[in-house]
Amino acid sequence: YIRVRLIPQWSDQSLSVSNLDMDINDSDWTEMEGFHYYKDSLEVNGITTNIIKSVDIGELTPEYEGESLSIKVVAEGVQSANEAWKEVWSIDSLPF
Question: Is residue 88 classed as helix, strand or coil in its secondary structure?
Fold first, then answer.
C-alpha cells in the first residue's frame, strides 16, 4: 500500500499556501488525517495514478512576485500482506 503527504511551499517559506487549491484525484486516492492513501495495493513494479489533477494558485498579492511554488511529496509504502500497515502506520483500518 502507498500513502503520501503533500507539502506545498513557496520559495519564500514565510508566504502562506492558503491561496492554493489542489484538485486531488479522489477516484483513486482518499484522504485521512493529512495523508492521501492509494485505494489499491500495487503489484511489484506497479505505479499509482497521478494524485494531483491540477493546482490553482488564484490571485496573488505583490509579495508573491518572483517566487516559485513547489509541492513536496513524501511517500511511504508498506507490504499489504499480514496487515503490516497497522503496525507500520499505527492505524486500525485503511480508509478505503
Answer: helix
